[in-house]
Recover the amino acids of this structure.
């Protein structure tokens, strides 16, 4: 699934219970952390026509979709949190939600269903794989993202914060105000002068 989908899923998990802003950020980042290895696409693209291309994306994407990395990310999330166990648990959950989403909807254009090497580097004996995996650009993935966008709007309405809080509290207030004004239940009748 797309990074946007993983981000929104993690932010929804982070808002499932009472956490402070730093803890919500840690949980949300845990949901996108498995794709850090996707940054290998940059050196691969830059060296693709060279004598020695760096196949860092082709060979290593999904290399961090593992149990050990989930534990590392959870410990890092706990290290910045006040509610350490709750934050670590939600980070672990958000990380695994990423894995589940990738298992369901990450089939490449060539039809290869990407397996998840869950126990690597300790063992290659058990990998998660599903032959029914949806293509990245499938309607199912768009539907999941659409549901997460609706959930995000509901959280904005209820809690008064948006995913923009991760970057700027000031911008978050602007976004929340705009969304609440747009989707307010108390609307003026058409043709009514608001002044």
């Amino acid at each position: 699934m797309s990074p946007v989908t993983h981000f929104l899923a993690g932010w929804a998990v982070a808002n499932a219970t009472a956490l402070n802003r730093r803890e919500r950020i840690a949980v949300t980042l845990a949901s996108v952390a498995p794709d850090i290895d996707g940054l290998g696409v940059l050196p691969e693209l830059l060296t693709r026509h060279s004598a020695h291309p760096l196949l860092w994306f082709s060979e290593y994407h999904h290399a961090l979709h593992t149990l050990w990395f989930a534990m590392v990310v959870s410990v890092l999330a706990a290290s910045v949190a006040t509610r350490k166990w709750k934050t670590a648990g939600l980070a672990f959950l958000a990380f695994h939600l990423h894995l589940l989403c990738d298992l369901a909807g990450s089939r490449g254009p060539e039809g290869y269903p990407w397996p998840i090497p869950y126990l690597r580097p300790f063992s290659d004996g058990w990998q998660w794989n599903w032959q029914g995996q949806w293509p990245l650009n499938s309607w199912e993935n768009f539907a999941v993202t659409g549901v997460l966008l609706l959930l995000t709007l509901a959280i904005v309405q209820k809690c008064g914060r948006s995913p923009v809080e991760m970057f700027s509290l000031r911008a978050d207030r602007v976004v929340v105000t705009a969304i609440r004004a747009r989707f307010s239940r108390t609307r003026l009748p058409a043709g009514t002068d608001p002044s």
Observations:
- The two ends are 46 Å apart (CA to CA).
- Helices lie at 3-14, 21-32, 41-47, 56-60, 67-79, 84-105, 139-159, 169-182.
